[in-house]
Write a structure and sequence with these properties.
Elements: E1 6-13, E2 19-25, H1 31-45, H2 52-71
Antiparallel strand pairs: 1-2
């Protein structure tokens, strides 16, 4: 809304295992510099990579189960 470049990067996990992000806001037309800062921050924090395939498989199983329950 301010017309400034912004990026959110994961910073930590909450006690419940949910990701907590940190948002960086850059100066006008300084997108590349902002992305460089975000990349540097991610490298320093070493936030664990989330395995999306496992999450997607779980969601598919849950949705398929719910669909079957409503079809019966």
């Amino acid at each position: 809304m301010a017309g400034l470049p912004a990026v959110t990067v994961p910073a930590a996990l909450s006690e419940r295992g949910l990701p907590i992000g940190l948002q960086f806001i850059g100066q006008v037309f300084q997108d590349q510099q902002l992305l460089a800062v975000a990349k540097w921050f991610e490298e320093q924090v070493k936030f664990p990579v989330i395995q999306l395939q496992g999450i997607m498989d779980h969601i598919y199983t849950v949705l398929h189960h719910e669909k079957s329950a409503f079809s019966s």
